[in-house]
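dude i think i finally got it to work??
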Amino acid sequence: METTATTTPPPGGAAAAPAKAITAKGASKSWEAVQTAGRKAFEAFLASNHYPKVAGLTAAALRKEHWLDAELYEHFAGWIAGGVVPPGRKGAGEPYQNGTIKGYVQILVNAAAAMHKGRGDPAADLFFTCLDVKASTPTAIWYRGLRKNIKRFCFERDKKAGDLGGEGAEPLYLEDVRRLVRAYYIKGTPEACARACAIIAAHQSAGRSSEIGYVDTDTASWDSYFRTMYAVQPMSKPSELKPFALCAGADRYCCFYAAFGYRAMRVGFPTLDEDDTHWLFPDLQGGSTGAKLSRYIKDVCKGGLQRYSEVAIELHDNPSAAGLRVGACNVLATSVPAEFATHNTGHSRQADSAYYEYLRSTHALVAPGAVVLAGFPPQPWGRLCVTPKPPKISALTAIGVDLVGLGPLVDCTLLVDKATTHEDFCIGGGRPPPPGGG
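look at this
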């Protein structure tokens, strides 16, 4: 007699039809599309004869020694990096970006590991330790280096494309930044909040227009003495890294923390994967960062995007992201000594004296310029200082505020209640700053 197996629901009963299993493998359509695109790209790579060792083979015909060949992945990365996104896909005609290139290589390594790891071959097991982000084996070090070099290649490519310069651009000053950010705050959409945050950060970094797009959370840290966040961005001309402070501002329209909090409320935080790069400004990925920032500025000006027409402002003719650096340099030149300002801008003074070969940028040397870029008066000439600090909620206890009773207000502000609209917690409610800021 045939019997039918029954499923026992979990304790408390079943909330929905039970799934067969929850696995570590992605199941969304977007994840499947990326996997398919990666496999198609690899087949096209093999057919291109770019790497002679596998010329004429298909992926199914590759032998184990091919999959354990580090040069296979290096040549695949180089081939993808030199191509453009095919028609019919998002970003068609644009060069492949850092995240896509690394993702395709990762798909390839994962597929190879699924076939050959844990099958009794010590050489294969050693090779695929590259997938362990904490391993220190030669292949793990190689793979981390490959991923870093993919990022550097994309950065250098953007530089050659002309996205990172801008000495001749019309300057954009702090008041221009305030007006741009205010307009985006009034609009209040998730896209507008993300754009406002990126503009403030680009201004405070005083870097070239595309450099802010290469800032990731792995290089950002909180300095407990200065009580501010410092991030690190690559510089195109000296090909070095530069620290910069992301500061509390003199008012809500030039404060990084207000902008970051507003972005968090409207956009949320991405899921973090320890094996991937986590960009501080993910909206700037995919295409030229400099061109995107320039579009953020132009879209909210008169004659820009229709969806921003009701909040549009007027700036000078042809404003661009490159103007943020020009404006910052002008303000720094009149507010702090050049010995300090160059730590904010990343300009080299080694030609002036060998002394500057030993003087590296530090949090302390960046601070005087960061104060000015955040909208505060400059310090006495030549004096070091600390950066502006975001407020601490513990200060409320000094005036008798009940922190327990404050909880429901925080819940409402952080949109715990989904009925809350953005106007309920819009920073400043879209009001213009009072005379002199504030």
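The two ends are 82 Å apart (CA to CA).
im so relieved honestly
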